[in-house]
Amino acid sequence: xxxxxxxxxxxxxxxxxxxxxxxxxxxxxxxxxxxxxxxxxxxxxxxxxxxxxxxxxxxxxxxxxxxxxxxxxxxxxxxxxxxxxxxxxxxxxxxxxxxxxxxxxxxxxxxxxxxxxxxxxxxxxxxxxxxxxxxxxxxxxxxxxxxxxxxxxxxxxxxxxxxxxxxxxxxxxxxxxxxxxxxxxxxxxxxxxxxxxxxxxxxxxxxxxxx
Amino acid sequence: xxxxxxxxxxxxxxxxxxxxxxxxxxxxxxxxxxxxxxxxxxxxxxxxxxxxxxxxxxxxxxxxxxxxxxxxxxxxxxxxxxxxxxxxxxxxxxxxxxxxxxxxxxxxxxxxxxxxxxxxxxxxxxxxxxxxxxxxxxxxxxxxxxxxxxxxxxxxxxxxxxxxxxxxxxxxxxxxxxxxxxxxxxxxxxxxxxxxxxxxxxxxxxxxxxxxxxxxxxxxxxxxxxxxxxxxxxxxxxxxxxxxxxxxxxxxxxxxxxxxxxxxxxxxxxxxxxxxxxxxxxxxxxxxxxxxxxxxxxxxxxxxxxxxxxxxxxxxxxxxxxxxxxxxxxxxxxxxxxxxxxxxxxxxxxxxxxxxxxxxxxxxxxxxxxxxxxxxxxxxxxxxxxxxxxxxxxxxxxxxxxxxxxxxxxxxxxxxxxxxxxxxxxxxxxxxxxxxxxxxxxxxxxxxxxxxxxxxxxxxxxxxxxxxxxxxxxxxxxxxxxxxxxxxxxxxxxxxxxxxxxxxxxxxxxxxxxxxxxxxxxxxxxxxxxxxxxxxxxxxxxxxxxxxxxxxxxxxxxxxxxxxxxxxxxxxxxxxxxxxxxxxxxxxxxxxxxxxxxxxxxxxxxxxxx
Lengths: 211, 610
Known about the structure:
Chain A has one domain (2-204). Chain A has helices spanning 2-18, 22-45, 51-77, 90-111, 117-139, 143-165, 170-198. With 211 residues, chain A is mainly α. The chains are: A mainly alpha (211), B mainly alpha (610).
């Protein structure tokens, strides 16, 4: 069961890399958050960490419902075209994503030497999620992609934390959620302002600001 | 193992520290008294408060530098001193020149500190402690090569602060730009903390382990003497001139300290004590007379609003007190008896000659040459101050500002007066002060206090028979002079005295435009040292017709060779590299994110490898 969900996380990450439109990207992110929520719930039912119940509820509330809603609202309000803007086309992106996954596998092998395979897979997926989030931030032009890439990376970090140590302390978890939430709101405003100023949220045009 | 960062504020009060604390306070008090009136004339009340707070902090930080007993605390105090003095250099922050001077100063001083940190960490690596006394005992077993490296690092680090050539580049910019009472303290005392560092870390803690250490210090010192005084001769800005003289005098101090290092290695402990005594005595003397001169320069600036000698002149009639003080300082720095500068330079010379007699082989020649350079320096310094005093205070005023100058008030006069008094006192009471300073240097070198009077060290090459007693010579000299002057007065004194216009040469219509200038005065020296100064001229004629020249402009400059051939190339290299590196700054967020990712991946691969 866990394995399937973890692979589902990886699959949504690939889907985000190969997404062509903003709404697809947000939708895939919502799916990823949902998988993460279920995974946390499963961990919680194992009974080791009762705090995980509330964490999974928080994930559901914030990452599955509120953040995607905000993002959808922003993308509707600024009424730019749906195209994400590619430095690297989706197919090539997918191939690079595969290479990055392999790299993550090697890395996980280095970090979790001599431990059970399940942990290694967890590690691989979370490293991949971080790398792919970063990848989206780098190779997509729209400012919204940067926001979502950052969130995807955060998901990866969360997965790694819960896989290797059964989650961070509850207080830290709450703080991180709050952080992410505020981060999204600020970035949302930022995107909005960029759009007003430049009539585009194409971040690659920001280098016009350079003196 | 001891806790290496045991940062209890432990202080040391051995004779060396107390000596330096005394010097700091000796100069700080008159400068502080002076500052009240000086600041009032130039700044608003808020800025005055800021200036005084910084000034007091500056004094405290310098006291901390010479009192702490822990390398770590030393570095903190050292940095604090550098930073506060930076803020004081840029105190006139609305002037472009101040900012520029401050930048040069802070860059150079931090380069110096970087070398110091490197040296201290090498020491720490070997000793495992930051405490002075622990380091001292541990360092005695350190291998020679590492000692050499630490010595060089320390010498560069402290040399930058002291302003030895070729690390002096910041000094003529930073010192003149600060308010005068601060220049007095910077030039008089701050650069001396570097001497403290050299004595404390190199002589006391590291221990002189090779002969070439002393030789290197002496060579650098001799070069500093000459270069400092030659540049000073070319200078027209009163305070810059004084700043260059600081380079020269640091050279003279280091001649004493360097020969002390040499004699320690050679096992001539009494001579080493005398040499260090000469160095330390010149240190306190220089602090006093250079402080005095800077305060006088500030007073001139206060009265006339300019420091350019070519625009001054005739001040002796408007500002008699300042002139008298400046003359006292000039005589002291030119090493004229009976003022203090004479005593210490004479001591240094004696040390070099005695050393030349005591050593064998090439060192004999080396020390004699050094003595010759010191003598030349003294002569050039005298010439320089004939220029400085003559052009600034004598003659007719060369500008309206100089004509309307007024004597400064009580607090400034008092500040200068105290220092002038000390200049005289340190000269006349030399026999007494030398005994104290000899005790300090003997304690520093860990030897028994020398029981000597000045007459123990007369030039006595044969050890017996006739000898030349220096006091005897001077008594004979003075009496011959007196008799000559008296007889001259007898024969010529009855002739009528007539008063005429100043510097008029018997012609009654010369204006101040016809007077001798500072540039003119220094011309012979510019020619004599042209191989070093590389003077060049600029001529500009604007002709109305073939026969009639409407305006004519003549400029003469000297090339600052250290700046041109070393620092400018270095800076050029830095800027070129920076320009090259600018290529990666495209302003694209994606690229920056990419840099981060690539760095992370490379680091991960690196981690996997090792």
